Here is the input.
Amino acid sequence: MDHFTYRDGRLFCEDVPAADLAQAVGTPAFVYSKATLLHHYRALRDAFAPLDPVLCYSIKSCSNLAILRLLADEGCGMDVVSGGEVCRARAAGADMRKVVYAGVGKTDAEIELAIGEGIGWFNIESEQEFENIAAIAKRLGRTAHGALRINPDVADARTHAKTTTGKKETKFGVDIERARRFFKAYGKDPHLRLDALHLHIGSPIYSPEPYVRAVTKAVALIDELKHEGITITALDIGGGYAADYETGASPSFQSYADAIVPLLGDFKRGGGTVILEPGRTIAANAGVLLTRVQYIKQGGTKKFVICDTGMHHMIRPTLYDAWQFVWPCEPGPAFAPPRRAKEMGMDGLALCEVVGPICETGDYLALDRPLPPIARGDLLAVFGAGAYGMSMASHYNTMPKPPEVLVDGDRYTLIRRRETYDDLVAAEIDPTG
Ligand code: LLP
Here is the structure.
């Protein structure tokens, strides 16, 4: 459920017409709904309420400070993967004890920063990393907590090869056999307390079933470790819960919870803390990318709809063959979309290639897409753009990044201004002075 709806054939974000926003801030622009962000966060929290989990929003999915602040004010923790994200979490006023820090390549400077900020857990990805964090904690006279990231060797067949992580052959974490040795070697370290486990099996995962297999393996390992005198006090089951890019295509929060919660009841009752790291389930459908059609061009049998945004602002279609719903913002009542679907079951649509201005053939938002009549100057919306849109945007072709707007009811706030051409060269140094 989100707050991007068509009324009389016009797209609204909450109570603001998308066309008014485009008029006010120009295009391209990312537009987020505050009500949707909060609704997603609260619905996920409520679905998992029996476990009273620590929800750590995955900053990488959509990292604007205003959005982080909104979630931090709700009591949400943060999942970070860099020193930059540690700083974002702090700037957003997050409770740093509810921050988990993942990533295979944490540098000494990043580790020092995170220890200094008193984060909750480092997700540990390798033996060398463990030794390094332990040594830094010792040098700083601090005690940090570590969650060993394990690969339960499960995968979802529908998860793209570039975003699956739970398999044995991955740069992330260690397999379960190696985890046993890991605890033997490092389980008693006084500076980096290895008292938690971490899983993240990929994203998006379109079914609860891989989580069930992964969590079952983790719980078995926790029991086994207990018999050896090692107590695991926290289990982080990661993120990756799918967002409804296509209406009804993803499991509800409740169906993930129904499958996962019973597996962790005993762990919770025994005093364990459960952590979740959702990103896209909160942010994806809370945002759209607005774009203005610049030109229509016929190329052989193909009709190209050429937009003022593309892979530099929304790389998911190009990078992961991801499908995102694209539709005009003012199609009129006859073409108001009843749902976001690959097959719209409407008359009068024509197949289009929705492409961007970047000088690459791979620069597209949608291929072979049935769309209503579209003319130069029309406004389109790329749906499901709240996650991994702006956060993965680049300056390729020296294009400024779009502004971001947060809508709240019938009001909106600019939460990031459009970049200028001067911004684009601001960090560069001209050696000639
Ligand atoms: N936790 C860890 C350790 C992760 O690596 C990720 C995502 C998440 C949580 C959050 O996953 P989410 O709930 O947002 O699916 N750029 C790709 C997705 C890459 C995900 C990377 N890690 C995309 O646009 O689909």
